[in-house]
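Posted in: Structural Biology > Protein-Ligand Complexes

Title: Requesting predicted complex, WT7 in pocket

I'd be grateful if someone could produce the 3D structure tokens for the following input. Sequence and ligand are given below.
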Amino acid sequence: MLETKNGMYLPTDDFASKSHADQATYQAMYDSSVEDPEGFWGEHGRRIDWIKPYTKVKNTSFAPGNIDIRWYEDGTLNVAANCIDRHLETRGDQTAIIWEPDSPEDDALHITYKELHANVCKFANVLKDMGVKKGDRVVLYMPMIPEAAYAMLASARIGAIHSIVFAGFSADALGARVAGSNAKVVITSDGAPRGGRVTNLKDNVNQALNNVADDVKCLVVRRTGQQVAWRHDLDVWLHEAAQNVSDDCPPEEMNAEDPLFILYTSGSTGQPKGVVHTTGGYIVYASMTHQYTFDYHDGDVFWCTADVGWVTGHSYIVYGPLANGATTLMFEGVPTYPDAGRFWAVCEKHKVNQFYTAPTAIRALMGKGPEFVEKYDLSDLKVLGTVGEPINPEAWNWYHNVVGKGNVPIVDTWWQTETGGHLMTPLPGATPTKPGSCTLPFFGVQPVILEPTTGEEIHTTAAEGVLCIKDSWPAQMRTVWEDHERFEKTYFADYKNYYFTGDGARRDEDGYYWITGRVDDVINVSGHRMGTAEVESSLVAHPKVAESAVVGYPHAIKGQGIYAYVTLMNGVEPSEELRKELETWVRKDIGPIAKPDLIQWAPGLPKTRSGKIMRRILRKIAEDDFGALGDTSTLAEPEVVEDLIANRMNRH
Ligand code: WT7
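-- Reply #1 --
Done. Output follows.
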């Protein structure tokens, strides 16, 4: 049992002594990282193999009008070589990737570093044959199969920039991203089995490409063997093309600041933006956080349950672990198939040492009862991780007691698509934890709490306000794809000279951080970010919808649910049928994760006299907390609110 002191869970002496960092080491390293970032990152940058070593370490500016972030800018390297080739001599026969398929009846795969090398080289040569060159964009729309990792690493190997679109997104969303990055090739599979059901990925790709760009080629991995509609001259089967290429492909020499990938993410306004991550700083930081946050040691089996369509999958299924020569587990399925014990069955089967998942999954499994966990031997677990949203103490305690049997440290990692890797997290051998707190910053990270209206930094230890970061870290996003102005406007305009995270936070008397949630119009659904503006613009695109406002509300499993107020066109009658029609509309337009959980028919929306929607009021009504509406004196038509309250959808 982990000992507690003042409500904190302490690392055991035994764990601390074997860990990469005990408390004193963390403190000393953290201090040096902020006192001398050049020295610190100059030293730790050498954890990566460089073709041409850097002489410059940090060249970053958050100054208004000059947002410019460069790390290791004169160094050259190749990320795929760092994730594969450099391990061949020492661990060529070690498993790099364990693949666990959707169905437990099917065999798992163990792919060694040598096999990974051959597969990635072939994949890279196929891409080259399809005309992909350094700097070209390649879109991935893939199930969780080893070929997803091969495709990422093959792109990195030849210097192409990958942009992964989560396979749960719709054909329309995929099309927009292919067009947005002007991609040359889309990589997909015939179908994607998940939870016993198959999504027809290739069909979606056909539809997407038909609408936006009918000259884009498609590389197709055979996964299910189902029939697919083939676009002659444009589509290529991987298994056929791979027969004609060599299993050797020399890695391209890349500059540290060349883009490695684009990943679209939702914000408070407009359509999703393409977050750009570059090569050198990203891989240094992904590898270092993977090692320290999870206390990863050689020979451990590491499992991150995310999908490669999210940044968590990029940094902690593929790049961080493989850069460290780890064995990383990739899971095709879902936590509840064939039953709610699947995660734990997989942990037992593959002797997982570090397990990393999201609070929403923990809450969903918690509801199914402890018996699903107790059936399995989880004695190999050394570290448990969580990411995606604040973890409620009930879920934390269940994770700690039922999964970890009270013995296993939990790391609650706070970070974002934009940050590339963990910014705040406990280190399991160093940091006493408090359920619900992401505790302290990682090396080199300087969080600050600002007073929201004045933007003044609050210097007292205990503080609450908006969370910003004072200085750059190596894996920071560099720009928004082809829109540097939007980058500056989104992250550096509201609070000058800081990176603005979009989150609110509290710092307690011990200096521990507690994320209080987004302060912008972004909602967090099952640990995934959704912009309310995006859902609104989808709804108003429906011919029967006049106006819409979307807010988040507390949801027992998802963290936040999507609550949509919809005003219909004159003469259109609300009906259950129309409600279903709108749900399907949004699903088709964006994807299942954007589907509103609740739709309320609103004869009107509460607006100020200048016509601005008063979202604060809409949030309160959606939360079923309308006793606390606050100041409503600026409302143009107060009776609108009465109607919304009377017909609210979320009643306790
Ligand atoms: C937003 C970022 C980074 C991978 C997953 C989501 C919230 C993330 C935590 C945590 C409290 C968290 C924040 C953040 N968030 N992790 N441990 N505790 N909140 O990536 O889609 O870019 O979303 O997720 O609100 O801003 P993302």
